[in-house]
Each structure stands twice: as C-alpha cells, then as structure tokens.
Amino acid sequence: MEIFDEILSFLLSRSFNELIFFFWYFFLFDFTRYVLLDSFTLIYYFFTLPSKRRKGEVARDALFHERPLISVIAPGKNEGRHLLRLVTSLEKQTYRNLELIIVDDGSDDDTPEICQRLFKEGRITRVFRNKVRGGKASAANLALQYAKGKIVVHLDADSYLRNDSVEKILLPFYTDPDIGAVGGDLRVRNVLETLPASLQSLDYMKSISTGRIVNSTIGVLRMISGAYGAFRTDLLKRLGGWDVGPGLDGDLTMRIRKSGFKIVHEPDAICYTSVPATFTALARQRFRWDRSLVRFRVRRHADMLNVRNRNFRPLNFLTSFDNLLFNMVLNFKWWLYFIQIVFVNTAYLKFIFTINYLLYFFSNVVEYLLVCILFGRTIRRSELLLFIYLPLMPLYTGVFLRMVRTFAHIMELVCKSSYDDSWNPWKVSKVSKVFEGKSKQG
Amino acid sequence: MSKDYFITPDTLSASGSFEYSPLQVTDFTGNYPGDARMFMVDGNSPGYAEKVCRSIRMKSDPSVYLKPVVLVSADRSEESGGSGAFDGVIKSPEETGPTLQKLLYFAGIAESKIDQLSSFSSMDTNIAMKVIRFLYVRSGSVSPERTTSFTSGYSFPGIDFFLEGADDSLLQVLDFLELQRVLSGDFFEKAYFCNQCRSAFLNFQEVCSHCSSSDLEVEDLIHHFACAYVGSSREFGTGSGKVCPKCEKELRHVGVDFDKPSIVYTCNPCGHSSQDPEISTTCFHCGRKSPPENLLQATIKKYTLTSLGKSAALHGMDSLFRSVMEKNMPTIPLSAFKAFLGVEIQRIKRYKKTTSSVIMIQFSDLDKIYLEFGAKAVDIFYELSVALKSVFRESDMITSLTDTLFLSILVETSLDGAESALARVHKHAERLFTENIGRPLKFISRSLLIDADHTVDKLIDEVTECGDF
Lengths: 442, 469
Prior knowledge:
The complex is a heterodimer of chains A (442) and B (469).
Chain A: H1 2-13, H2 16-66, E1 70-76, H3 80-91, E2 98-105, H4 111-120, E3 126-130, H5 136-145, E4 151-155, E5 160-161, H6 165-170, E6 179-188, H7 195-218, E7 228-232, H8 233-239, H9 248-258, E8 262-273, H10 279-300, H11 314-344, H12 349-374, H13 381-384, H14 393-415, H15 426-441
Helix pairs in contact in A: 2-7, 2-11, 2-12, 3-4, 7-12, 9-10, 10-14, 11-14
Chain B: E1 3-8, E2 22-24, E3 36-42, H1 48-57, H2 62-65, E4 69-72, E5 88-90, H3 98-116, H4 127-137, E6 141-142, E7 145-146, E8 154-155, H5 169-179, E9 183-193, E10 202-207, E11 216-224, E12 229-232, E13 258-259, E14 263-267, E15 273-274, E16 278-283, E17 289-290, E18 296-305, H6 307-315, H7 318-328, H8 334-351, E19 357-363, H9 366-373, H10 375-391, E20 397-400, E21 405-410, H11 415-437, E22 443-449, H12 456-463
Parallel strand pairs in B: 1-2, 1-3, 3-4, 4-5
Antiparallel strand pairs in B: 6-18, 7-8, 9-18, 10-16, 11-12, 11-13, 11-14, 14-15, 16-17, 19-21, 19-22, 20-21
Helix pairs in contact in B: 4-6, 7-10, 9-10, 10-11
C-alpha cells in the first residue's frame, strides 16, 4: 500500500507537461488507438448488432436457397494426426454442401496413409499429394486449381470449427456483393496447455476477436488469417491464388483490397487453432509473422500509401498506414521512449515503469471485459479463467513481443532474412527472392 | 516287336532305316497301335501335328497315350514351334544322329516303364491318373509356360493335350494332385484370373472414380517457384518455351525455377480430376468388369511327381487310400499276418477252448470320391480310418491284401462278435459318408470263424471269396 501512496504523491507532485513527457507514449498512441477507438467502435458495433442479425437472416435464407458448393481446402505437411478432428468437425457443420480438398505437401510421416483411408471412407472429397514439398502457397494453389466451389474456405489442417462456423463465414457474401473475403474468428484450442498458450489466447481475444471487429467496422481490416478465411473462388483464381510467404495471408488480403473488394471479419465464424506452447516456438512464429510486415507492406504494397497511384483508395491507405505506424514506426519509437525513461528520467524510473505497467494492465482488463461482453455466448470456461493471466499481459505484449518484433523488422530491413526462412523450401525462397527483387525494380 | 509309326496327312510308302507304316488320319479318332515304340508326326502342315498329338494323348490305353510323340519337321527346331508338346523334333523320319539316338533311348525307357504299370484301364480315363502316369514315364516334372493358347495363360507342355478345352481345367487338376501329395509344387509365379470365367487375359486400366470412363488424360503439374502458381503443364504452354500463366515469366529449367510435384488424371467425359484413379479390369474372354481386388489369385507352380505319386502311377489311385488309412490304422505285412494266422490256427487246434475270427473289408469306387471331392476326400478317408480304429482292438492284427482290401484277425472273438464288429464298421462308415457326401460308401465285408481244419491260404481264400482283387 505504501507503493501506491508513493505513486499517488508522485503523480500529484508532477505538472501536466511532466506527466505528458513521462507517459506520452501510452496516452498518445496505445490508449487512443487501442482503448478509446476500440471502445467507441465496439460500442457502435454493439448497437448495430440487431441490424446485422436481420441482414444475417436474409443472407441465411439466400445462402440455403442457393446452396452453392463450398470448397474447403487444407494444405499442410505432416498434419495427418489432426485430420480426423478436422474432418469430424466439418461433418457436423450446419452447412453441408462442402467438398474437402486436402493437399499433402511432401509429408514424410503417415499422413499419406491417413489421407487415403479418409478418402476411401468418403470423408475427404479429394486428396492431392506432392511427393516433394513445395510450400504452403503452392499447396494451397494446387487445391485452388481443382476447387469447384463458389467460395473457397482455407483452413489450417490442425484447426477445427464450431458447428455453425462455415455457415457464419459464408453469410457476409450474401449481405454485400462487394465482399471478396471474410475472416473467421480464431480462438486458441490449447488455451490452458502452457503459460505461453494462455497468454496467446488472451492476445487473440484482444487483437483478433475484438481488434478485427474494430478494423472491419472502420473498413481497415488488413488480415484474413490463413488459419480460417473464406474467399470468392473467382476472385482468388483471378488473382492467381496465394504468393510465396511467409505472410502470404496478409499479402493476399492486400491484393484483394487493391482489386477493389471489401474485406470483413465475421466474429461468429469461430475456428479453434493450435498455438505454440513454448516461448521459443512462439518467438519463432512471431519472428516469421513480423518480418512479413516489412516484406509485404513496406516493400510489396508500398503503393497503397502513394496518393498519386492510379488505384489509390483512402481506406486502403488508412489500412496500410495504421498498420505501419502502430506496428513498425511506433515500435521503434518506443525504444526511444524506453531510452528516455531509463537514461533521462532515471530518478523516476520506479514510478514511471509501475504506472506504465498499471496503465497497460487496466487497458488489458478493459479489453478483456469488452470481449466477455461481446462474446459471452461463445466464450468457453477455459477462456474465462484466463483473467488470472491479465497481470502478465503488459510484459508479454510490451516486452516480449515487442523485442521479437523489433528484431524481426531489423533483420528483414537489413538482411531480407524472410527469404532464408525454412518455412518455405529453399528452392522456392531462392527463386522468389530474385523474382520479387526484379519485380520491385520493374 | 515295337515299331515306329510315321503319321502324315498323306499316304506314304515305307522306306528308310525304320520300319514304319503310314497311317492316314482324317478325323483323328483312328486306332493307334499299342505296339508302337514311338509315333512320328508330320509337322509340315500347320496345326496337323498338334491335332494328331492331342488325339494320341486323349486315348485311355497307357500303351498308346504314354508313348513318345516326335515331331517331324525340317523347319521347326527344338526351341521353336511348340516342341514342348512333343517329346522331340527331328528333321525327317530317316534322320540318324544324336537327336534320334536320344529319342530312341527315351522310347526304350518309356516302354519299360509302361510295362510296369498296373492295368487299370478305367483309371486311365481320368485326367489325374493320366497326368501322373505321363510324368512318371517322362522326367517326373512339368513346368508351366506362358501362352496365349489357353485362357488360363499357361500351358504345361505334354499334358495340355489330355484336355479338350483351352480353359484352366488343367490347373485345377494339378492343384488337386498337389493337395493329394501326389505332386509337389514349386513356386513359379502368381497370376490373376477373371472371377467369372477364370481367364487370365485381363485388360487393366485406370478409370474415373466418378463415371468409370477410361478416357482419362494424364498431365504433369508444374509448380512455379517464383509465384507459387501450380497448374497443369498444358497451362504453361506447349513446346519448348513455357510461360507461367500467373506472372508471365518464362520458365527456365526444371529444378531451377520450377518443378513437377505430381501428376493429375482428368476425365474427359465428366471433367473429374484426381491423382488416384480407380483401377478396373475387363476380361477379354467374357467381358466382365471387376476391380483388381475381386480377381481370383492363384499361384502357378512347377510340379514334380512325389514318391506317393510314383506309387500312384504304378498301382493306381487306390494306393492313396491305403496311405491315408495306414496313418491311423497301422498294418502288418501279409507275410507276418499269415504267420500270426498260422499260429492262431494251431493254438485253436491245440487248446480247443477259444474262438477267433477273420474279417475282410474291401472298399470300392474310391477314384470317384477323389475326383468328386478332391482334397476333402483325403479328410474323409482319414475320418474313416479313425472310425475303423475305434472298432478294432490293439490285440487285433490288420493287413492289406490290396490297396482297398483289408484283413484282420480278431483274437478271442466269436463269429457273432466279428459280425457285430463289422456291423459297427458299416454303421460308422455309413454315417460318416452320408453326413459328408450324401451317400454311403460302397464296401463289402465278410467274417469267418477260424477253424482248426483251416490252412492259412485256404482261410484267406475263403474269406476273400466275395472280394474283388
């Protein structure tokens, strides 16, 4: 209690300018963008829910009247052990006119045998096998090549869906013909497996479940996750499918936006996916994801920021600007803030860190409460128990993820290290590095 | 004295170093002489020699069908022209030289072996017996050869001509004989047959899993590394210069900037694509379509005559029956049996206190049971021997006079007791055969009380009087 008294007296003894100087980063950026803007937008969203539901009913009637074939594609390597769960969850869907296409991308375990068995049982519509791995993009494109459905739903093979998830993700296409892609709501499957998994679950609830609702409502949604997304097949084929990743899902989302179609998030289309269970695996994953920001949004889609571009669109500009500003520019700027606090305001270090921690902690609490209010129906008991990890979130997002992100950005800016990622076969990375370099020059 | 006969379509006059008489064969049903040392057949007319050979082999007289048949042809050699069906090839009937000498030597051996054979002409109407005897007279083994002349796809040179048709009956006969342990089989290869007509001529084809059409197009898939595009090779253009339809870059070399990760089958009628088309087979003979897993699989073997087979060749199929019976019901040699019988007669003569009996049991129509039930016949006879064993006591002595006729001394047994034992044998056998084959086994039996006035031979003659041996 003594520390709180000290903090209070510290705050009361500082001038307004001093308080701004100490806490400008939180109030100017994070609080404004992620607390205020999110809260207002979510409140607006909440009040639009009845209208959304009415439109959803109409869309549902149209969907079931037309009953189009939907192609569910799940490319992957060595994912055989997850396939039965995926197949079972698809068989329980409320929307049944599905074809399931599995692409076995060079598996060297018993995945081929599992695929064949499920195929022979009639539980998989089509199986394609590449004896040599070509990478996620080419495997998805192979499935796209032979997809007959009007809409392609891309899933990670280690995911599974709620029973109405496919139906929900299809509805937006029947509310607005300009929608080119719909992102589903990702929830963590292995919520309580380890501390990293629990922290990621909280992060997903914040950044995906609510964050993407906000972005979608504003019109600046920039990501349809590869783990669960639905796309118009004709649009996908016109765009040539996926390009070489990592970050291929974000890249595709940008290309869809640039072709003039809308991207929306559907929070009721819930997909459970596995997340890394250790901090090392998590760091590796985020390192890969964060490099794609530089590779695609800084290099490849920089034209979205060019107001003189023939295809310039304000919302596309805002999407890219928002992403680059808050995830890259301000990320570097935070280190300047950190240096300032540590080396300039050394005397008040204890108070500044503690107050910052408390500010971010309460922000996380607000965001968590918003999630619980909005998604009370679909929140699982294990997710409700996550509140005990809220005190760790400021350290998780503010320190751990920030450090990984900063390192990733530097490595990609300086060394283009994403092309050396073993996530793709080396032959693919080598060629795509040259290709993308030439494309930029051209 | 044996003669060599030269069979031609035309009438020829005898000349040369061999005594031969021309036989004009028109309908191939002529009476071939049993005194032939070997038959030489004119091979200059296409198909004639094979027809003559078949007609010889289909005779039931061992002195005819087992004789060597030699092809006479200036054009055909040992290695060509289906000479496996013949015992040899010579260029002309007047030929001298090592080939002919070898044939004459073989003819001599064949003749002596034929002379050893017991004459059971009724047996030689049955294919199994003819096969055994043919192998016995020759090398004792037969190897399959792949051929399009038989629907089974295999011929067994020499013994093919025992059958009229070109189906797989011979395979079934050989299989049956192997089960009887008359032949031993060595693996040659496995083969698949139509499950309707057992033909080996099957068309294997990939068919569409949707519409079962075989009109499938196979295409390589190309993966362009630069842009991750995957499509059929047709989409990248024909000819030497391939261009990616997505990024419009020219492909340089496989493995450098693109590869071919897999192939895809596309059905032209219905458009369905897959990597694993279904396999279907169509029988050329009857047209039946079936998946490969429904085909009949059989192991084709090279067969060799066993010692049991040699015995069967010499003495007939009945020896099989005796070999099965003796597994469970050991017999003593006839000489020992006679000695014991003599002792028993003397014992009864001396002590006049006791009675013993002799019984005779003879089985018949065994070959019909073999042909009808194949391997199951062996099991039936084994069960019969178990049934018989339960009737006899350990003190009873049993001998076989022939392969189907058994005698037994039932010591300390009255005539009534002997009759009662025979009645039990009849009852067991009747029940066993009626339950298994639907009709009783034919056998005759008799019992006699051993009299002090009997001699051994007289007693045996008397008890077997109603038998047929």
